[in-house]
Amino acid sequence: MMTEKKKMTIPLRDVLQIDLLKGAEILAGENGLDNSILSVNVMEVPDVLEWVRSGEFLLTTAYVFRDDLSLLDRLIPELYAKKVCGLGIKTQRYIETVPESALALADKLGFPIIRIPQNVPYGDLIKEIFNHIIGEQRDLLIRINDFNDTVREIMLKRGGMQEIAEQIYLATESPVIIHDDIF
């Protein structure tokens, strides 16, 4: 879904594993669970499209839809076009259920709609999602640092290109070819 410059992200499916979301339910758009989350935003205004960005997981109590559920049918394609990674909805407060038409549209687009448990505070959920994203970023930085240390050790010991290529292969799990015009 995202085609912009590669950023440090995690798939929505991974975020659904955090403890606060154990009671969450995937209502629609299961094919989009690999969409990447860059950030979290909250939607409680009708003009949310001005404020959303690509890669955001959008949370709502559905307050803006309480009087006109058809707004969801119009909003979902626009959120999808803006590359929002998914919509987390707390039902049973302002709306009882998400309309079937909205769920069918989300399924067609592969746009995830997740029912967020009513007892989960936004602040706690946002903090946990960001902690998860930051944890993934930290782990990646540790792997990069370890790789740099290993390559530096090879170079200091006057190791060859074969050893460096092996380390690149181990780090990327991709074939490595070293081409030298001199030989």
Structure, explained:
This protein has 183 residues and is of the alpha/beta class. The chain has a domain at 10-122: Udp-n-acetylmuramoylalanyl-d-glutamate--2,6- Diaminopimelate Ligase, Chain: A, domain 1. It is built from five helices and seven strands. Helix 2 links the parallel strand 5 and strand 6. The model is unreliable at 1-5 (pLDDT under 50).
Summary tags:
183 residues, alpha/beta, 5-stranded mixed sheet, two-stranded antiparallel sheet, 13% strand, elongated
Secondary structure: elements and pairs:
Layout: E1 10-11, H1 12-15, E2 25-28, E3 36-37, E4 39-42, E5 56-60, H2 70-81, E6 86-89, H3 100-109, E7 113-115, H4 122-156, H5 161-172
Parallel strand pairs: 4-5, 5-6, 6-7
Antiparallel strand pairs: 1-3, 2-7
Helix pairs in contact: 2-3, 4-5
